[in-house]
Amino acid sequence: MGNTNAVAEKPVAGKLKNKKKAYTGPKKSFKNYIKRYWQLYLLLLLPLVYLLIFKYLPMRYILLAFKEYKLNMPLMQMPWANVKKSVDIFKYFKIAFGNPDFRRALFNTVKLNLFDLVCGFPAPILFALILNELPFKGFKKTVQTIAYMPHFLSWVIIASLSTQLFAPTDGMINSLLAKMGLNTIPFLDDPSHWVVTYVMMGVWQSFGWGSIIYLASIAGINTELYEAASVDGANRFQKMWHITLPGIKPTIVVLLVMNLGYIMGGGFERPFAMKNNLVINVAEVISTFVYKVGIQQLKISLTTAVGLFQSVVGLFFLLGANAISRKLGERGIF
User: Fold this and answer.
1) pTM of whole model > 0.85?
2) Which 3-state string (H, E, C) describes the chain?
3) Domain with 161 in it: what CATH number?
4) Interval 101-142: pLDDT, tens
5) Residue at 50 is within a domain
């Protein structure tokens, strides 16, 4: 019996020893992946070169915020910022925060961008929801085209239009109000009215173009959900509230996070084109302050410090908003 068991065990052991591993497909490696999809990486090369040349290489000039700017000296040879020959690399940050014009520009930047966020962010969402409910395709395309057009106008043109419409004496709206025996409205002369005009013009310029992303997101929602809701007796508003809005919620969160990152930013053209001397206290923002002080007065180190502060604070806003969105169960932007 002992010999029989020994003989029986040998073939089994041999089978286990000679058993080959299951085939799991070709071994993946980064080199093989590049060979297979090299066309895609070739297309990606040009944007990467652009980012390297125009975005990353200029970053070395951040050092100007900590140095004394000398027009005739290379960056690395410029002396560090100093006060009475004693090194103080935060000199220009202290000067900036001690400048009342900068503090006013900082406050105006945050205030105007918050108003833009509160009034401008929901506008394209509502517009996309309304367009999605329109039954006539021809009328829908016409409305979309008309709404997109302001996005392609420069702020110089839009500022000229606002002057023609809202000028205090000869503007079209105030002329009509005067002919009707009503009081004129100081859209561009009074600070509070100017802020409202500024925000509304921004909403008008951007809501049509911003709705494109939401319309694309709505198009990706499964139509069977709407059919099932119709069978259950849901009306248009209930479908919008329980299907469309939850379907585009991830897109809304991502765009909200990105917009929060611009709270300290904002473009230069819009405030520069729309401001005037009567409303300078509410119209001066960081971008126009940098232009006035840095370009016109050649205080390069001071405005570099201002720009660095602006970028760092904007980054913290972006990271904070992204962290909150992830804690609430959304993906965020990274």
Assistant:
1) no
2) CHHHHHHHHHHHHHHHHHCCCCCCCCCCCHHHHHHHCHHHHHHHHHHHHHHHHHHHHHHHHHHHHHECCCCCCCHHHCCECEECCEECCCHHHHHHHCCHHHHHHHHHHHHHHHHHHHHHCHHHHHHHHHHHHCCCHHHHHHHHHHHHHHHHCCHHHHHHHHHHHHCCCCCHHHHHHHHCCCCCCCCCCCHHHHHHHHHHHHHHHHHHHHHHHHHHHHHCCCHHHHHHHHHCCCCHHHHHHHHHHHHHHHHHHHHHHHHHCCCCCCCCHHHHHHCCHHHHHHHCCHHHHHHHHHHHCCCHHHHHHHHHHHHHHHHHHHHHHHHHHHHCCCCCCC
3) 1.10.3720.10
4) 999 999 999 999 999 999 999 999 999 999 988 888 888 889
5) no
